[in-house]
Design a protein that fits this description.
transmembrane helix; about 325 residues; ATP-binding; mainly alpha; 2 domains; ABC transporter transmembrane region fold; transmembrane
């Protein structure tokens, strides 16, 4: 009864005991149509993590925030160092109590730059440690969760009824097991740490900007929505092309595994050329999608960098007007 119902496309959807995976059944024609993907929350991606994974991810998040705050802190040091360059070059007055060594401006500048070199070295060492812990901890947590996902996914496949395998391509399941879970690994791995790092850099940069010079910061904020919109459009385009490319390569992989699994039959009936044509057809489709994806990505990246450099031009122009009016020092404008 279940087999007949499955052939008619009305079979029940078997669920695993844990309810972690649902493997739906659809007919061959419905599989070709665009399926509506059920979206899940961000925290749902980490539902297979235990307390050890959560602790590692929390520590990795703290290190990502410290890593992201390194660049704004470095810009503070850079601004103060720039002011020291300008002051040393233009200050020829001497204090009341001075030694003969102070008569040499080069020695004063060397001592100041040595001090700032120590600052840079300390920031660099801190960022190195924070970046290593950030990447390693998030990668470790992702690897532990992916191992659980692979086990549960494979067990869920083995628990399906025989009718489910009659209407679903079993050769494509292996490709999905490898590629899709690899995508999940990328999504819950060090990229999450990079997200927290970018957020920390964003907020720390604005905090430093408002403290060091709020006027210039407000002018730069005027172009920030345009940068955010371009990044959102870029991400949307790349996500759409990545899904299409993944589906195309999955079909090509299914053809290859099907042919290799029955290689004796293929050779016996002389079907090598036919299988090569089938495989080549799917690869051509994937190649076209990949070319479109690359072109779209490069154009989007070019537009993003155009907007970034345009914001630099605006910042330098308005910063120079503030320096001329003596509202800012050169170091404040550079920060």
């Amino acid at each position: 009864m279940d087999l007949e119902a499955a052939k008619n496309g009305t079979a029940r959807r078997p669920r695993s005991a844990e309810g972690d995976f649902e493997l739906g059944i659809s007919s061959k024609e419905n599989r070709k149509k665009t399926k509506k993907v059920k979206m899940i929350g961000v925290l749902t991606l980490f539902r297979y993590s235990d307390w050890q994974d959560r602790l590692v991810m929390l520590l990795g998040t703290f290190m990502a925030i410290a890593h992201g705050s390194g660049l704004p802190l470095m810009m503070i040091v850079f601004g103060e160092m720039t002011d020291k360059f300008v002051d040393t070059a233009g200050n020829f007055s001497f204090p009341v109590n001075f030694s003969l060594s102070l008569l040499n401006p080069g020695k004063i500048l060397e001592e100041e730059m040595t001090r700032y070199a120590y600052y840079y070295s300390g920031l660099g060492a801190g960022v190195l440690v924070a970046a290593y812990i950030q990447v390693s901890f998030w990668t470790l947590a992702a690897g532990r969760q992916i191992r659980k996902i692979r086990q549960k996914f494979f067990h869920a496949i083995l628990r399906q009824e025989i009718g489910w395998f009659d209407i679903n391509d079993t050769t494509e399941l292996n490709t999905r097991l490898t590629d899709d879970i690899s995508k999940i690994s990328e999504g819950i791995g060090d990229k999450v740490g990079m997200f927290f790092q970018a957020v920390a850099t964003f907020f720390a940069g604005f905090i430093v900007g408002f403290i060091r010079g709020w006027k210039l910061t407000l002018v730069i904020m005027a172009i920030s929505p345009i940068l955010g919109l371009s990044a959102a459009v870029w991400a949307k385009i790349l996500s759409a092309f990545s899904d299409k490319e993944l589906a195309a390569y999955a079909k090509a992989g299914a053809v290859a595994e099907e042919a290799l699994g029955a290689i004796r039959t293929v050779i016996a009936f002389g079907g090598q050329n036919k299988e090569l044509e089938r495989y080549q057809k799917h690869l051509e489709n994937a190649k076209e999608i990949g070319i479109k994806k690359a072109i779209s990505a490069n154009i989007s990246m070019g537009i993003a960098f155009l907007l970034i450099y345009a914001s630099y031009a605006l910042a330098f122009w308005y910063g120079s007007t503030l320096v001329i009016s003596k509202e800012y020092t050169i170091g404040n404008a550079m920060t």
